[in-house]
Each structure stands twice: as C-alpha cells, then as structure tokens.
Amino acid sequence: MQQHTPARVLVVDDDPTVAEVVTGYLERDGHLVDRAGDGPAALARADERWPDLVVLDLMLPGMDGLAVCRGLRARGPVPVIMLTARGEEVDRIAGLEVGADDYVTKPFSPRELALRVRSVLRRSLGPGSARTGPRLTVSGITVDQAARRASKDGREVALTVREFDLLAFLLRHPGRAFSREELMRAVWEWEFGDLSTVTVHIRRLRGKIEDDPASPRLITTVWGVGYRFDVPAEG
C-alpha cells in the first residue's frame, strides 16, 4: 500500500464487468473504491463523499464523461483519469481539454491503470507523497511545491495535478528547452505515449498564466525542439 491513509477512488463506468475488474485492482492496491454507473450517480456520489481521484469512462449513457468531468471541476479540484474506447485523437484531446489529468484507452491493462492511479495520487496528495521542494518564483509566477499551490502576481491559479507538475518542472529549469518526449518522461513518468497529451497541457497552462495565450512570453515554443520557460528581458 502506497499511502498511510487509503485514498478514495471513484470509478465511473456503465460496464459492470469493467468496473468490477478495475475496482478489484485498485482495492488490492490499498484504495477505498466507490462506484457509479452513470453521470448523475457519479456527481451524487462525489457530493456524498468527495474522492481523492476519479476514474471516469468517456462513453456514459445520457450524460457523457466530458460533462461529468466539467461537473466535477465546477465542484472542486480532483484528479481525473479518463477511460475511452475510442481510438481517435480528437476524443482523447477532448478529455484533456476539459481537465482530465491522464487517459487510458480501452482495451487497457488493469495493472497499467492501477499504476497510473498510483502515480497521480502520489503527486496530488501533498507533502510526503509527492515531489516536494522549495518555493519557486520566476517572472511573477510562484509555485509552492510543498503546498502544491501556484499563483500569478499574487493571485492563486487553479491547476490540475498534471498542469501543476508541468509548471513546477519548467520553473525548476528556466531557459532550458525540452522536447515533448522529455516532458512526458519527466512529468508523466511515461516512457512512451501520445505526445498530444503534452501539447494540450501546455496550451491549457498558457491559458492560465500568460497575459496573452495567443502570443506566449513565458512558455515559448522552440521550433523543432519543444518548449521552454523564458524569463522575459526587462524593458
């Protein structure tokens, strides 16, 4: 078991077999698991007992996973791992755009999902279970790694788990360019995967910290390489 206090995970899937298998793996990993078979039930269950993480199927009857994710985000911060049976990139990106931290494409290995859950929880549950370090301040952006809070010019910025990790990593290495592959290994701890995951998170992060996201001055694109956190010249 990875945490001293078991994490509460909400599994939302209308396929009872998938939900049962996922629940079994997560419980063996030491988590407390709640289940819901549709969107309204998921939101109601979250209101009853707020989860530490949600495993959310994209294809739900009636209220789809994107709407559920938006509903959760409106209630408060919670890490979301999206499950999708679709292979099209546009569907994966849609999940990331509404704030999912990770996604797993069906059919998937339950063990892989359990490892993804463990990775996200390790980062989201605070000091002692996530990567910690000193407070970082660059160009008006401050990241408190121990408290996992970020602010811009003194105003707090609401970030998902992966957005926070990505920003903290870039602030630890200002002026250095990283490829999407390097960011995926360092932030997501994936050796391989869909690089659009990084692209979408960069875009979302720019939307939250840049004065003009269409003309970013902080997180800049290094053509042919990747991305770099710049320290703009004064003047």
UniProtKB/TrEMBL annotation:
SUPFAM superfamilies membership: C-terminal effector domain of the bipartite response regulators, CheY-like
Domain Response regulatory: 8-121
Record's keyword terms, sorted: DNA-binding, Phosphoprotein, Transcription, Transcription regulation
Pfam name, any one: Response_reg
Modified residue annotations for 4-aspartylphosphate: D57
DNA-binding region(s), chain positions: 133-231
Coiled coil: none
The keyword Ribosomal protein is assigned to this record: no
Keyword Iron assigned: no
Origin superkingdom: Bacteria
Residue ranges of every copy of the OmpR/PhoB-type domain listed in the record: 133-231
Name the record gives this protein: Response regulator transcription factor
